[in-house]
Amino acid sequence: MQKFKQFFKKMRRPGSGFLAVLLSLSFVSSCMSGCSAKKAESTVSAETNKKIKKDEDSGTKGVVRKKKPKKEIAAGVINVDFKPDFNSSGKVYTPLNIEAKSQEYTINPDLSNIANLNQFGNLSQKQKELIAKNGFAVAPTNSEQLFYIYEDNTYKKIPGFVTSDSVLQLYHILFDYSLRNVETEYFYNDLAALNNNITGELIRAYSEVQNEKVKENIGVMIGYFSVCNLCLGQEIPQGCPENIAEIAREELSRIEAASAPQASLLLKSGIDYSLFKPRGHYTRSEQLQKFFRAMSWYGIASMPFYKDNKKEKGRDEDSAQRAIIATMALCKLDNTQGVDLWENIYSTTSFFVGESDDINPYEVSLAVKEAYGGMPSYDEIPERMDEFYDEVDKMRSSEIGMDSGEESAPKMCFMGQRYLPDSFIFQKLSDTGERLIPSGVDIFAAFGSERADELLDEIYLKGKSVPKYKKVLEGLKKRFKSYDIAQETHNAYTTWLYTLKSLTVPFSKGYPLFMQNKAWEDKSLATALGSWAEMRHDTILYGKQSSVECGGDEPPEVIGYVEPNPEFFNRLLWLTSYTKDNLESRGILSEAMKYKYENVEEMLTFMKNCAVKELNGEDLSYEETQTILTYGGSLEYISSSIAEADNWHLVENDTDKNMAVIADVHSVSYGSGYEYLEAAVGHAAEMYVAVPYKGKVYLTRGAVFDYFEFTSQERMTDEQWQAKLKASAPQRPPFVDSFMEQIIGGEVPTPASPFSSGC
To answer: How does DSSP classify residue 686?
Structure first.
């Protein structure tokens, strides 16, 4: 049990045959089954659990208190067995070790040595110049999915180039649909049941408790859980005090209006109500909108243990009592009615996204046990507040939030928003006051990307004096450089980031010509940022946001090439297996969905093996190039099956059909208003790459992300972004000029009716 006492207190965040299989698949509904979480020991290293040392060691010490004589209480047994444990696969990632020795080649300035140049008669002069200089060029299109470009390749017999972007897009679809299926099939009902059970316990306690102050705080907590009831479309439970019910309804009106930040009528602490605006995939149905608001309430509405979340301003004992009351009500219920439901939701979402940045009920239950010797009665709560605060002072503080630049104090959220390494980076950098609105480029600079660091100096920080920012950035680089693989693969979110890091390393001699230049590093950074934007989109509910105030002619000889980065494919393959195994261990992965994961695994294995062959200087076989020829149809088939549609044109929601998604990732308060940093993926861009094959040079075509980053006066939904993109796209990041002609050329045909590549 001791290790579980330390778990939250110290834990810091830092965890050629696929086509044939696809042809034989008969997918059924991907409904999940069972939501009982199977537990196993966490594999997180001790290093992950280290607290961050403050730069100046200026943390406020606890106030010396004169304690009252201890009153004996008849404490019962408190349930501290709901251990939030999420990493149950026990798998450990092993990096590849491959010596790159791909075929050497050159490109004539006039492209005259490209054997199949006549297949690309629509290339602009700028694109030709970029291909001659860098070995590749990128141009935006109006195509709404990457696989449309590959399907067009198949139709026109154009040699295909399999990009990292295309498989990252597939994982995004797999991840997003897995999460929303779990949310709608299980978490929605579990949350409603948990909420009803707790309000029932609190209403019973309200009628029996004698201490007036405790009674008042129980009433507030009835209101707290009643707000969740209202968010889910339920009625306020009978027995809720009328004055509290009225306040709960007013809280709901603020939530539904997504109003400006202000003090909560119920809890008195500040709440940014704009965060309740459903975004990400939560706009797709009324049920998902309700779930978003309810979980956001539990993630945002906090119970601080000190006034204004600062120790030096003294205790907030009313708020502390409310945290104890909520925890006691949870623990007093039968496990199946209380802690099991809470743990299933919390642990599974912790696997997807990470642990709460704030204290959770499990940690409070441990403090109650130590302070009271077990479960006190509600009337006895005031008797051991000194002892309880002794335990509070041992608790961790949140690391992300408006006040994180100052010493903060612990606070509890019932289902707190999660620590994200990228949000932490934004928070630390913006806290300097020298860079209030950072860029996604800052994140990968902190992760150790040399090119991202160069771009910051060359573009984003040019001519600016930012000594504090640079000092903090160097500290962040050291922090993340020290992480071992267990920390890098701590959960699905951190493993996704770890996968993206493999794209942001420089590639030297031994790799193909098109990879040995700054332009490729810029393109790879854009790929990583595009996938990061999708990740933030998929996890927007849970992640804590930083803030600071086929037919025709014979095909050509070359018909396929894979981006030769086997380490990337290996990491993404591991991430896919890791996600599948953890969902399966919890009993929330159907056989149909498991089959889809396995086919993505097989596809990634195929691509990794092709990349290894290319780096070894070997030509791909005829069978392998034939598989790549039909890659677009395979992508569409798998993507459609994940979305439970026979083909992409039959996907139920029109917004989901478009790959353009957006996420607000950082916010700034200027006193007179708010500004939000938006990270977004636009429509597909096409990439032309010159590659070696059998002693010749051929031009291939692939599909990549079109990444955008801009500020907005409101938090944008996917629907709003797609409309904006269609009307007038914002300016792209300046570093894309090294590889992209930003004028849209010939549009890649998107079939008006379902297109078949013969797959």
So the answer is: E
Residue 619 phi, psi dihedral angles, 5° rounding: -80, 145
Whether residue 542 is predicted with pLDDT greater than 70 in this model: the reply is yes
Cα separation of 82 and 340, whole Å?
Answer: 7
Measure Cα distances from 558 to 156, 667, 694, 698 in Å. Answer: 13, 48, 9, 7
Contacts of 668 (CB under 8 A, 6+ apart): 430, 436, 437, 547, 548, 549, 674, 675, 676, 677
In contact, 338 and 330? CB cutoff 8 Å? yes
| Paired strand residues for 511 | 509
Identity (one letter) of the amino acid at 46? A
The pLDDT value given to residue 342: 95
C-alpha pair distances (Å), 386 with each of 315, 372, 379, 522:
10, 10, 16, 56
φ, ψ of residue 634 to 5 degrees: the values are: -65, -45
Residue type, 229: N
Model confidence pLDDT, tens digit, residues 14-58: 333 343 333 333 322 333 333 333 333 333 333 333 333 333 333
**pLDDT score for 731:** 93
Cβ atoms 78, 329 nearer than 8 A: no
Taking only Cα atoms into account, the Rg of the chain, rounded to an integer number of angstroms, comes to: 27
Q: Cβ(165)–Cβ(530) under 8 Å? A: yes
For residues 717 and 670, is the Cβ–Cβ distance under 8 A?
no
Helices (H), 621-680: 622-629, 631-642, 654-657
- 10 Å Cβ neighbour count for 683? 24
Query: What pLDDT, in 10s, does the model give residues 125-155?
Result: 999 999 999 999 999 999 999 999 999 999 8
What share of the chain in percent tops pLDDT 90?
Answer: 73
In this structure, what token pair is assigned to residue 14? 């830092």
- How many CA atoms does the CB half-sphere of 94 hold within 13 Å? 3
CA distance readout (Å), 667 to 162, 423, 533, 707: 36, 11, 15, 19
How buried is residue 411: exposed, middle or buried, by Cβ count under 10 Å (0-12/13-18/19+)? buried
CA distance 249 to 247: 5
Which among 686, 705, 351, 689 is positioned nearest to 500, based on CA atoms? 705
Residue 58 has a pLDDT of 33
Going from the C-alpha of 620 to that of each of 104, 571, 573, 611, the distances in angstroms are 16, 22, 21, 9
Q: Does residue 484 contact residue 90 with C-beta atoms inside 8 Å?
A: no
Backbone angles phi, psi at 380, to 5 degrees: -85, -5
Give the best-scoring range by mean pLDDT among 67-81, 553-567, 677-691: 677-691
pLDDT for the residue 88: 53
Please give the pLDDT value at position 475: 97
Q: Which two tokens stand for residue 546?
A: 């930083």
> 3-class SS at 302?
coil
Prediction pTM value: 0.87
**Biggest distance spanned by C-alpha atoms of the chain:** 94
d(CA 86, CA 348): 6
**Rounded-to-integer distance, Cα 223 and Cα 571, Å:** 46
DSSP-derived 3-state class of residue 76: strand
Identity (one letter) of the amino acid at 681? V
Nearest alpha carbon to residue 341 among 414, 413, 289, 237: 414
Can you say how many angstroms the Cα of residue 78 is from the centroid of all Cα atoms in its chain?
34
Q: What is the pLDDT of residues 336-387, one digit of tens each?
A: 999 999 999 999 999 999 898 999 999 999 999 999 999 999 999 999 999 9
Q: Quote the tokens at residue 719.
A: 């629907």
